[in-house]
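Residues determine shape. Next comes a sample protein:
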Amino acid sequence: MSKQIRVDFFHDVICGWCYVLSPRLRQLATEFNLNIHLHAFALSATREEMVGKFGSMKQAKQTILGHWEQCARADDSKRVNVEGMRHQTFEYPFSTPGLVACKAAEQQGGVNAYWYYFDAVTHAHMSENRNIGDLDELAEIAGEVGLNKARFLDDFASSERQAEIQRDRKLAQEYGVTSTPTLIINKRWVVSGALDITALRKILKEIATKV
């Protein structure tokens, strides 16, 4: 077997480009010996932060859906439902609830459960246009991926989840990560944005010759 390549994947649940990138990374994990670590990186951690960034929650949604349109064009499977979200009446969600939920999933099933939950919650957000800012919805998604909902809710409520997110933020700062998605490969090479799978494969092949 080829030497293992470590990939640190910094992501947000409200990041359309992370939704686009994740299946490409899964495909590459079948081709290379990848040791993948997932890390939460909140683009807008709170409602107040989102309002401060965009001016209002209405403007936040309008601007972000413009980004969704770009993601929809880039998504390999054409899963991004821009118009569906445009017609939803709930406020566009901020980052923290969904990221805490990913960490709660990890408590039950480790990194695999984290990644499956991340994929499920971003799909719920960007394809099914569900309100992933709502705890009941997040718990429902947990049940859909086979997690125990009662334990999920207990783990979600633990203050340790916030500490875990802060540790991820500190690690991001150490690597100089400022946006999502960002991949740190073998703790040295930085790959920002949702590169297409051909470009990512080329990068991994080059790195594989150096490890």
In short: The CA atoms of residues 5 and 90 lie 41 Å apart.
